[in-house]
Amino acid sequence: MLRRSAAIIGVDEVGRGSLVGPVVVCAARFERIPRSARVRDSKLLTARQRREVALWLRQVCPAWVVVEVWQETIDRLNILEATRLAMTAAVRALAAPDTEVVVDQVTLGDLGLPVHSPVRADRDYFTVAAASILAKVHRDRVLAELAADDDRWDWSRNMGYGTVEHRRAVERWGRSYLHRQSFRVSRVLP
Predict the structure, then answer these.
(1) C-alpha dist (Å) from residue 82 to 154, 160, 190
(2) Interstrand relation of 7-14 and 23-30 (parallel, antiparallel or unpaired)
């Protein structure tokens, strides 16, 4: 699928299904792919493992960028278009001649570079797995900081996702200014 390029940019996102805050995209550019069995889809790692691997990736990855798109833009565009916007910006920040892009399942359109968007790229491509880890660690840190200011919605544990506890907190406290207004928060069953 990939041709022999000078560099490969892996792109992934985290937070698309969250009810709160940003969708975070990371693009990670590698000229040579280092080998590590610890680098795999961020969803397959514990929080501690992700933090440890992210530290290593920051040392071995020659270039990466993180782009946040917050709830105002998500509500205005929709989650898929907001994700595409962030992914496009991230790729453009790292793009160079003779670069290929691998993105997990999202079609980006013409960027002037070969772009591949296979299903499960975060499991099958080192560069995308690396991007998924860096994005997840970044977003978790953002949500932890938000929770430190006001954790009525239990963001320190649910990272903004629609857990039963989070939905109960929304029923009790209402939505915060950080909640995505375009996302429906299902009522909690009695």
Answers:
(1) 25, 17, 34
(2) antiparallel
pLDDT band, residue 157 (cuts 50/70/90)? very high
- Cα–Cα dist 6/182, whole Å: 41
Q: Is residue 56 situated within a structural domain?
A: yes
In this prediction, residues 159-179 reach a mean pLDDT of 93
Question: Is the residue at 173 inside a domain?
Answer: no
**What mean pLDDT comes out for the span 17-34?**
95
**For position 98, what pLDDT does the model report?**
86
Q: Which of 31, 30, 22, 57 is nearest to 42 (CA)?
A: 57
* 166 part of a folded domain: no
Q: Note the pLDDT tens digit of each residue in 69-108.
A: 999 999 999 999 999 999 999 999 999 988 999 999 899 9
Whole domain around residue 100: which residue ranges?
7-150
Count how many domains the chain has.
1
